[in-house]
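Onboarding guide, step 5: your first structure request.
Type a short instruction followed by the sequence, for example:

Predict the 3D structure of this protein.
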Amino acid sequence: MSDTALKDGWAKVTNGKPQVGQVAKRSRTTSMTDIHAFTEMTGDRNPVHYDEALAKKTPFGKLIVQGGVTTGILNAVVAEDLPGPGTVFLNTNLNFKKAVGIDEVITGSVEVLSVRDDKPICTLKVTVVDGDGAVCVEGEATTYTMPLQGL
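The system replies with structure tokens like these:
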């Protein structure tokens, strides 16, 4: 296979081929509205998300947002920034290290670990940290980026 054919795996991808070491981040503040919206979508009504008196007695010591709310910021970074529009997850391996409460600033970041030339597939280091920089979620993800131009 020629070098040109190998490089065509990323042809017409919106943000182009990412580079190893490239990083993107997004931040947001969690809210009770997030908990309600996630419950509406999933049915997750765990009392640690709703019963403040009970939640204070848990090891968390407070109401916490669902894990899907915490990791959802990674979806935004991947789909909007890096690799960018047209990107979907093929695989995620996430480790939850610290619960996130209401009204906490979280920052999701992705770092490109590897990039295939023949297909628009990347391996990413993914992390979500809180406002103090403590790691809440960390792991790896594999993504596929489809070209959207000409659809």
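Each response can be followed by summary notes, for example: The first strand starts at residue 23 and ends at 29.
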